[in-house]
Amino acid sequence: MAEAHAKNHDYHILEPSPWPLIGAVSAFLMASGFVTWWKDITILGLDLGPIVFGAGIIGVLYTMLAWWSDVVKEANTGSHTRVVQLHHRYGMIMFIASEVMFFAAWFWAYFDAALYAGDPQLYSRVEALGGVWPPKGIETFDPWHLPLLNTLILLTSGTTVTWAHHALLHNDRQGLKMGLWLTVILGILFSFVQAYEYSHAAFGFSGNIYGATFFMATGFHGAHVIIGTIFLAVCLLRAYRGDFTPQQHLGFEFAARLRVRRLVLALRRRGMALPLRCHLCVGLRRKRGRPLKHRTQKWICTFGPHPMLSSRVRASCGRPGPLFTGVARWVRTML
Asked: Is-contact 202 139, C-beta < 8 A?
């Protein structure tokens, strides 16, 4: 009976879990409690909004803790095979693409209002903005003061998390911990400086398009920094537990605040810089027992070997070709 259920594939079949249902109920309580609290809605004469909202927050946080703890156990027990890790990376790439479009919407709104502030066809906008940008009556921040300081803090945190990743790849546990400590401290410092900056803003969120776009774009960015700081703090705790290895540390790579540069380099280092089209083509030809064409193998060697290819093909690829090297150098300069 046990042999009938033996695992003979590279995929991960999930066990039944209560966390999706508990998380959904908790999210519903959090949202409904927030709405009733915000709108001062009473239930049977009682102001239950704050209580329901607090219960939902506790449920969501507990679900995140318990669910991610199960994921860590799955990774440590070998359930995350190379195929599963490949799909995790595909999911992270799609998530980053959605994040790019999310922020593109706010920047689009900002630049649309800034570039066409005096457009005579948009007479209502001209009347609201005074035909200039920033609008009349708006006192902006000095870009060489707090914004520059926070930018330098953010860039420095990128170097420290890169140091931590490099130390992990070379099995330097002390360097990993020191890099993560510095990154977490810099992330907290960034959030405090941004909160101080907001408290001294000479304009508000409502009443003008400048304040709305400024606080939405920078506010969501600050929220991402806070979430990334929490993720990296969890990675620091896991580093002290000895969870990460140079061969398997997806949790650390994804928690390094979804930095496109770090992800691109990580994908290249893992031999994942192979488009899906070629991946499907190679998989179909191998399934049908056909040899790889010379052109396909040359293209693979140019962009990097794929982990699902045979060891013979991976060994024949060697070092990355000149095309990938040139593109990677250009991407590094742009990022």
From this structure: yes
